[in-house]
Every structure is written in structure tokens, then in C-alpha cells.
Design brief:
The complex is a heterodimer of chains A (267) and B (312).
Chain A lengths: L4 E10 L7 E11 L4 E6 L5 H9 L6 E6 L2 E2 L5 H4 L3 E4 L13 H9 L13 H14 L16 H14 L4 E5 L7 H17 L4 E4 L3 H6 L3 E6 L2 E7 H5 L3 H12 L12
Parallel strand pairs in A: 3-8, 3-9, 6-7, 7-8
Antiparallel strand pairs in A: 1-2, 1-4, 4-5, 9-10
Chain B lengths: L1 H5 L3 H31 L7 H17 L4 H24 L5 H20 L3 E3 L11 H5 L3 H22 L3 H11 L1 H6 L4 H27 L1 E3 L6 H20 L5 H25 L7 H28 L1
Antiparallel strand pairs in B: 1-2
Classes of the chains: A alpha/beta (267), B mainly alpha (312).
The complex binds adenosine-5'-triphosphate and magnesium ion.
Magnesium ion binds next to α1 of chain A.
Chain lengths: 267, 312
């Protein structure tokens, strides 16, 4: 079986040739097997979000290749590669359309990568299945299908965005600090929902987090980024045995004591 | 003062009202177009001032050339769509900021419209052609049929737009306007959808121009000047008065679209009132601009004020 994701030596420099020039990715390589769930940690500006954005095609990379399930998507525009990807963002506002209802948001997500024609935007049958899916979230949303998403809390919106990402099974799920804007209790709940959805649909997933404990507890693989590169990559038994102190030591080793003023959390 | 009030004739106001309603319904079509760009797409599209005259010019020249006046409206619609296409491509493909792209199209259209008509003004006489709308119909013996036709036409347009924005494609346009980042993440080509929405919007504006030119018996290169302000006024009046009424009910969007027509009618009634009060008509545009500016500012000021109170 081939890799689900192959990242080959990608580079990205922002604002090249100006005083704001910033090398954000400096030769990232990563291969994910189908079903891999990798957590990504690293300090501020390490390039975690940039890596996920490169995969999603927010802009094109300067160098390197991105291959999903054998298909080279390096040159595809953002909306074209969306068919392969489920995405949940840090800001709960980003993943949903606030002025549209819960069911309309879900219907849009259910058609990801399909041609959108003049058929009615949502069918009765779909509505029923959305209701079922929302019931599973256990957030009381199943009776609010026609409520505007803008009226919901951040946690509810993230949960819906997760659901939307999985309605049409993605080849890769990208989670960029998707619980960082939530209070601890809600964050834990959304994280549990993420785990459940990933397991249920056997998704390949990448999750950026600042919480080392979460990074250790979730997924089967962990990578640490620093200055636009992956500097540490563990999986399997080795990852299971990992302690927060190991990660701290690793982090201090590469960054030389910068740690104190970083927002990486030990919780 | 007493002589001023004595000089106001209530009957003359009453006589002016049917014309205001007719004008309101006709310009309401343009206001629908403005609603699509300004509210659904979140795009301040100034193409309108040009595409309205384009619709009028195309309709009038075709009618003068012997085309059926109703059929000519289809071409007015298509001409408006072409204008919207230009703005859309300037914005999405060439990366020109939205307002600037639409101003460029608007300015360019001035010459195009002159070219279409060959001069700045072309008349069509209602005695000579079987026009779909005319000032004469407002007071004529068939005025009931005329108004019935106008309202039926408006309802059909509301129905079509309601249906369209309920389809998969329409939903994609709404998502594009509401949250382009989300839209792209869901595989929606936001550039394409922006162009499409601008085309539909300006199609409606062109259609309005075609009908209004027939209504006033002429097309004029300046007939669209300030149209965007009238459209915005209609949209905003409708939201202020009917926003609460429309929200949350079944088919809320259809009611919202209907309210836009009523907003346009109210705008023209207010204008009639202002003229009736013998206020100088030279100040009409200033008056419209001030009204729109105030209504646009209200939600912002409200938000600022309540935020201050919360943090205090
Ligand atoms: N669109 C952009 N334009 C310019 N610079 C950018 C852009 N996106 C990211 N950068 C820069 O690239 C570097 C890497 O940013 P990135 O967002 O990937 O960091 P991160 O690892 O996600 O950090 P954080 O933990 O703060 O989210 C940073 O220096 C950032 O300022
Ligand atoms: Mg980040």
C-alpha cells in the first residue's frame, strides 16, 4: 500500500526580496501511511500552520512536491484540492458560513469536490441524516438544523466544522490548533469528537497543537517542527512511552532555552 | 408660513403617488441586483451606474430598430450581464480591488453607451411602439392592468431569485460572499462564483434600465447616475423597516426580496413628498446620499456604543 500523503522537500519563503522576507518552510519531508494520525508541535513561527496551508493550497510552494494518495496536487488550486481534504481552523469563525443555517453549511460540505448545479441545495433525505449525525455530537444541535451558524458558540461551531470535514470522507484531515480558542472543558469535548470521527471513518489526520499532553495522548505519531523543518519524528511504541519532559528536553536542545517565553503548554 | 401651507395641495400629492409606486417597482428590480452584490456577495459594485444606462440604451436602440419591446428586455438583461462579467474578471482574474474594478467598468461603459446610442439621448414614443411600461399607462384607462403586470413581474423575479439562491449553485454563491475561506475549503471556486453573482446582479440592473427607458420614453447616458445610491437606499430602508419581520420565518429570503421592492417604493414616495413640500429638487441627490450614509452608519455606531458600555 502506498502513502496517503507524501511531502517532498517543500520550501516556502514569504515576501522574498523584501525586509520582511521570512523563510517559513525550509525543506519539509513527511510521509503518512493511510490511517496515520500525526500530532504536530513546535514553537511559535516554527512553520506548523504553513505546512498545513501548503497542503491545502492557500498559496503555492516555492519548491518541492505534495502528493496525496498517489496524485500530485502541488499545482492544483485551493478549491480543486479541497476534494481530498477536510479542514478545521483555529478560529471557529473560519470553518463555517455564519449567515447560513447548520443544515445549509452541512449540505455545502457534503458536496465538496462535486459540481454544483441547479438542483435544490439540500434534500429531505440529507436533512434526516444530518439530524442523526448532529445527535451523535450530543450538543443539542439536532433540533436546530435551520438555526444560523453565527448564533452558535465557538465549540459548537468547531464540532460542526469537524462533522462537515467528514461528511464526504477526506483523504486527509487537517486540524490546525482547532481547540486553542476554546475553554478547557469545551476543548476536551471537541478533541474527543475529533478522535471519534477519525477512528470511525479511519481517517488519515494531522493535528497541530500547543498542548504537549494532547500531542502525546492522541494519534499514533508525533512530529516536532523548528525553523521550518521537522526535527523530531516518533511513532508506535516509542511515541506511546513519550513523556512531556522528553519533549521539553528535545525542545530546549534545539531552541536553546527560548522556551520560557513560548506559549507551549504543559497542562 | 400660512401661505406656504395653503399652497400645498393634497390632491397633487395623491396624483403623484401612483407614479412613485410604478417607479419604485421598476427601480426595485435594480435594488434586487444591488442586494445580490452588496448583501449576498459583500461587494460594493458601482458598475450599476453604467450598466443601468447600458440596459436602457440597448433596449431603446433595439426597439427603434423594430424589435418587440418585451423581447428587447432580454437583450438589456444580457448587456447588463456582460458589464458584470467585465467587473468580475477585472476583480478576480486581474486582482483589481472590487470597488475600483467596478468604477473602471462604469467609466468605460459611459463611452460604450454613447456608442450604442450614437448620441447622449434617444427617444421612443409610446404612441409609436407597444412599450411594456410608460408614464402614460400610470394614469391611462388601463392603469389597473399596468400595475397588476408590474407587481406580477416583480413577484416572478422574486420567485426566480428565491429559487436560484436555494440551489447548490446559489448556496455556493452565498457561501462565497459570507466566508470565502470556508467556501474554498469546501471546494467552491470563489472567483467563478463572484463573476457569476456580478453577472446576475448587473443583468437585473440592465433589465431595470430597459424597462425604465421605456417608462420615461427615452434612454439617456446619464440615466444611471447615482443609481447605486437609490439601490442601497431601497435595500437599507427595507432592512430597517422589515428586517425583524422577515427574520426567522419560513421563506425569510423571499420576504426579504419582497421588502426590497417595498423599500424602493417607499424611497420614491419620500421623494414625491419632498418635492411636494416644494423643497428644491436640486438637493435631491444630496438628500439621498445623506439618508443612505445615515442608515449605513447606524449599525456601526450602535455597535461601537454598546461595546464601549460593555467595557466600561
Ligand atoms: N501569509 C504569510 N505572510 C507572511 N508571513 C507569514 C505568512 N504565514 C506565515 N508567515 C510567517 O511564517 C512563519 C511560520 O508561520 P506559521 O504560521 O507556520 O507558524 P506556526 O508554527 O503555525 O506558529 P504558531 O504556533 O504561532 O501558530 C512565521 O514567521 C510567520 O510570521
Ligand atoms: Mg499556527
Amino acid at each position: 500500500m502506498g502513502y496517503m500523503l507524501e511531502i517532498q522537500n517543500i520550501h516556502k519563503t514569504f515576501n522574498p526580496g523584501t525586509i520582511n522576507e521570512k523563510v517559513a518552510l525550509n525543506g519539509v519531508n513527511l510521509n503518512l501511511n493511510p490511517g496515520d494520525f500525526v500530532t504536530i508541535i513546535g514553537g511559535n513561527g516554527a512553520g506548523k500552520s504553513t505546512t498545513l496551508n501548503a497542503i491545502a493550497g492557500v498559496w503555492s510552494v516555492d519548491e518541492g512536491k505534495i502528493i496525496i494518495d498517489g496524485v500530485d496536487i502541488t499545482k492544483l488550486s485551493e478549491h480543486k484540492r479541497a476534494v481530498h481534504l477536510g479542514r478545521v481552523f483555529q478560529d471557529p469563525m473560519t470553518g463555517t458560513a455564519a449567515t447560513m443555517s447548520i443544515e445549509e453549511n452541512m449540505a455545502i460540505a457534503a458536496r465538496r469536490g462535486e459540481r454544483r448545479g441547479l438542483g435544490w441545495g439540500i434534500t429531505k433525505k440529507e436533512r434526516e441524516s444530518y439530524k442523526e449525525a448532529l445527535k451523535e455530537l450530543d450538543l443539542g444541535l439536532e433540533d436546530r438544523l435551520s438555526s444560523k451558524v453565527g448564533l452558535l458558540s465557538g465549540g459548537q461551531r468547531q464540532a460542526i466544522t469537524l462533522l462537515m470535514a467528514s461528511l464526504k470522507k477526506p483523504k486527509l484531515l487537517l486540524l490546525d490548533e482547532h481547540t486553542a480558542a476554546l475553554d478547557p472543558k469545551t476543548a476536551a469535548k471537541v478533541l474527543a469528537i475529533s478522535d471519534k470521527i477519525i477512528k470511525e471513518h479511519q481517517l488519515t489526520a494531522m493535528m497541530v497543537t500547543h498542548n504537549m499532553k494532547d500531542a502525546i495522548m492522541h494519534g499514533n505519531r508525533l512530529v516536532m517542527m523548528h525553523e521550518g523543518r521537522i526535527i523530531y519524528d516518533v511513532s508506535g511504541e516509542e511515541k506511546r512511552k513519550l513523556q512531556v519532559s522528553d519533549l521539553l528536553a528535545k525542545f530546549e536542545e534545539v531552541s536553546g532555552g527560548e522556551f520560557a517565553n513560548d506559549r507551549m503548554m504543559l497542562a | 408660513m400660512a401661505t406656504y401651507f395653503a399652497s400645498l395641495d393634497p390632491m397633487s400629492l395623491a396624483r403623484a403617488l401612483p407614479g412613485s409606486v410604478a417607479q419604485g417597482v421598476i427601480w426595485g428590480i435594480m435594488a434586487l441586483g444591488v442586494y445580490i452584490t452588496f448583501r449576498i456577495l459583500d461587494f460594493a459594485d458601482l458598475t450599476v451606474d453604467g450598466s443601468l444606462a447600458t440596459g436602457g440604451a440597448v433596449a431603446v436602440m433595439l426597439i427603434r430598430g423594430g424589435m418587440n419591446p418585451a423581447l428587447a428586455l432580454i437583450f438589456a438583461f444580457l448587456a447588463g450581464m456582460a458589464a458584470g462579467f467585465v467587473t468580475g474578471v477585472l476583480h478576480t482574474f486581474f486582482g483589481i480591488p472590487g470597488i475600483l474594478a467596478s468604477i473602471l467598468t462604469q467609466i468605460g461603459l459611459y463611452s460604450v453607451n454613447l456608442g450604442i446610442m450614437g448620441k447622449s439621448n434617444q427617444a421612443i414614443n409610446v404612441m409609436q411602439y407597444d412599450l411594456v411600461a410608460s408614464l402614460r399607462y400610470v394614469t391611462g384607462e388601463n392603469s389597473t392592468i399596468f400595475f397588476f403586470g408590474l407587481i406580477a413581474g416583480a413577484l416572478v423575479l422574486i420567485g426566480i431569485i428565491y429559487w436560484f439562491f436555494g440551489t447548490e449553485l446559489g448556496a455556493a454563491i452565498r457561501a462565497t460572499g459570507c466566508n470565502p475561506q470556508m467556501a474554498r475549503a469546501q471546494g467552491i471556486n470563489t472567483g467563478f462564483n463572484k463573476v457569476l453573482a456580478l453577472m446576475i446582479s448587473n443583468g437585473l440592473v440592465g433589465l431595470c434600465g430597459g424597462i425604465y427607458a421605456q417608462y420615461q420614453g427615452a434612454a439617456d447616458v446619464n440615466m444611471g447616475r447615482g443609481a447605486i445610491v437609490i439601490g442601497l437606499a431601497a435595500v437599507i430602508i427595507s432592512e430597517v423597516i422589515f428586517g425583524k419581520f422577515c427574520a426567522g420565518r419560513k421563506m425569510a429570503f423571499a420576504f426579504t426580496l419582497g421588502a426590497v421592492f417595498i423599500g424602493a417604493i417607499i424611497y420614491y414616495i419620500v421623494i414625491a413628498l419632498v418635492l411636494w413640500l416644494k423643497m428644491p429638487s436640486d438637493y435631491m441627490k444630496l438628500f439621498s446620499a445623506v439618508v443612505v450614509a445615515c442608515f449605513l452608519a447606524v449599525p456601526y455606531m450602535k455597535g461601537k456604543y454598546s461595546k464601549k458600555r460593555r467595557t466600561a
